[in-house]
Amino acid sequence: MIKALTAILLGLAVVAAVMWVPPVPFYSLIIVVAGLGALEFSKMFFTDAAERMAVTFLVLLSAGSMLFYANSPDFIVPVVGIIVFLACLFFMWRTSELSGVAQRIGLAVFAIMYLGFAFPMWGVIRLLPNGASLVLLALVPATLCDTFAFLAGKIFGRHKFAPSVSPNKTMEGFVGALLGSLMGTFVIKFLLLPELAAVHVVAISFIVWITSPFGDLIESMLKRSCGVKDSGTIIPGHGGVLDRLDALIFTGPAAYLYIRYVILPQLSPLI
User: Fold this and answer.
1) Which of 140, 177, 142 shows the shortest CA–CA distance to 157?
2) Helix (H, G, I), strand (E, B), or coil: what is residue 235?
3) Cα→Cα distances 36→134, 145, 158, 235, 239, Å
4) Domain locations in the chain?
5) Is the pTM above the cut of 0.85?
6) DSSP-based three-state secondary structure for 128
7) What is the rounded CA–CA span in Å between residue 223 and residue 213?
8) Quick one: CA torsion of 182, 11, 242, 161, rounded to 10 degrees?
């Protein structure tokens, strides 16, 4: 009951934020969420408190750069290199024992790309013309993917999908996720984007269907690699921030590419 209520309240809050929160507070909210995710990630993989704080700071720096300078690729591209450089410098300064330092740098860079650059793409989509509706075009089906996968898996699930990573995931649930994705994109089309061609709706549905469930599995793989069930406890009934973000992190960049370079050139004359 608590889990279902929390999911409903979170869903309503996210939709309200996408539709009505002004840009700067919205981007600031994304940065805060990325920072909370970075804290959970660093707690799972780093034992040293200073390393945890450094990774979290670099994720925040990356997310802020993405959101407030997204229209300046000549700024963003070198920032990626500089932030990775700063991570390497920090570990060089902090580490007295070189054994394992390359692995920790790799984890730090992964966190920076995962939460500092991939996740904030949702805010970058909102910068586009009609951005709030376009965010929901990918966000709603990503949410319904998870719901329909759960229901289909519970009712029809027989064949394991990725047993070593997530034993409860089934092929039947994966098919159910596609139905949820299609339903979500068509609902947003009819409510907010009636001028959008059906072929684009189907394409976004398939993009979300691939990136959302596999994003979930990737986070499950990360958690199992360090022996934890949930990334945190901040969300009642759901675990941590990463447990709720997992299906969205890679969906944002994939959806942005299709929206920015395929949909918008055709949609912009109509909006």
Assistant:
1) 177
2) strand
3) 25, 24, 36, 12, 13
4) 1-127, 129-271
5) yes
6) coil
7) 16
8) -30
Structure token pair of residue 270: 């109509």
Could you give the 3-state DSSP secondary structure of residue 229?
Answer: coil
Amino acid letter for position 8: I
Q: Is the pLDDT of residue 1 over 60?
A: no
Cα–Cα distances in angstroms (integers) from residue 269 to residues 80, 115, 263, in the given order: 34, 33, 11
> What is the residue type of 181?
S
Give tens-digit pLDDT for 148-188: 888 888 888 788 887 778 888 888 989 999 999 999 999 99
Q: Which residue has the tokens 């949820």?
A: 180
Q: What is the pLDDT of residues 106-145, one digit of tens each?
A: 999 999 999 999 999 999 999 999 999 999 999 999 989 8
CA nearest to 115, candidates 226, 205, 218: 218
Using DSSP, state whether 151 is helix, strand or coil. helix
| Ranges of H-type helices in 69-161 | 73-94, 101-111, 121-127, 131-156
Q: Find the length of the chain.
A: 271
